[in-house]
Hints:
single chain; alpha/beta; Rossmann fold; 2 domains; 17 helices; about 40% helix
Amino acid sequence: MTRPLDGLLVVSLEQAIAAPYCTRQLADLGARVIKIERPDGGDFARAYDARARGVSSHFAWTNRSKESLALDLKRAADRDVVLRLAAKADVFVQNLAPGAADRLGLGHRTLRDAHPRLITCSISGYGTGGPYETRKAYDLLIQAEAGFLSVTGTPDRMAKAGISVADIAAGTMAYQGILAALLQRGRTDAGDHVEVSMLEAMAEWMGFPMYFATDGAPPPPRAGAGHATIFPYGPFATADGTVLFGLQNDREWAAFARTVLQRPDLAEDPRFVGNDGRAGHRAELQAAIDAVLSRLTTAEAIERLEQAGIGMARVNDMEGLWHHPQLAARNRWTTVATPLGPIPALKPVGGSWEPRMDPVPALGENTAAILAELAREEEAPD
């Protein structure tokens, strides 16, 4: 069975998370991805930690199914290797520091002038032009600049996301931009340039709080693990733990009041009609909910919530996610090889094709083979 991107070649000057996450998803769909790394340590995400059975957790997550080509781009001969690869590539991705690709002679204009069908993609913190173009742009810095920290945390203290949300946003938008450019090339036979900035990707994801605060209106308050504008919606303590649930409408509120709280009087109380009413009387409702759930075990609370048809969830940790019964029932786990042995891997979402799940490469593992391949192609008669 073929995959959607079988036969396509992606060449990537990448490091950290955003670009590697983008190109790993292209590899999932069958693309051949050649990852260009420095010989002296390679992608610095390789050294973030060694928690995935000796491999960096970030690197294992974003770099399976790739070939590692170690090149010193300060050397003209190694830069020439990149140019030779770009000549036969379908996609060229880079997330070097602003201006670095141009200084190396590998900027998107240079490459696309030479190869009009090539799709190039640049990922940076702030994009080209503007006063922030050359600023360093780590994930947390972008979370701050994009206003994410202002709406995340508790009323007394802001908090960052527990994952690299700005990098993931940028990598996801680069991935979808490249797929769109490939579709367009199928119609026009012309390549394109996709530019993604982490700030703009996060600004798109911040659409709800931005619109909520239109024309200088107050922004959504920080609500911890609860919802800033819907109530009740979030974690609530039980006698032996925590359960998380949320209500979306008056019908669910009535079922919750009657079945979970066993307080039919609250279902009819005009103060609690509509989400605005419930959100406007948080303190009263919080007290009523706590009075009931504090006497129930988590299992008992879940039983009542399910009986009432209320959306709910257990508050899992990483162990709970590794062993989630729904992921197991849907056969979502497989393994991939690494230089230090196999590790479990979650299968990517896709169609009827089998996703590519090849090894995580060692630094420079494929250098000799790729250089030999280029040499053979150049020696082959026309």
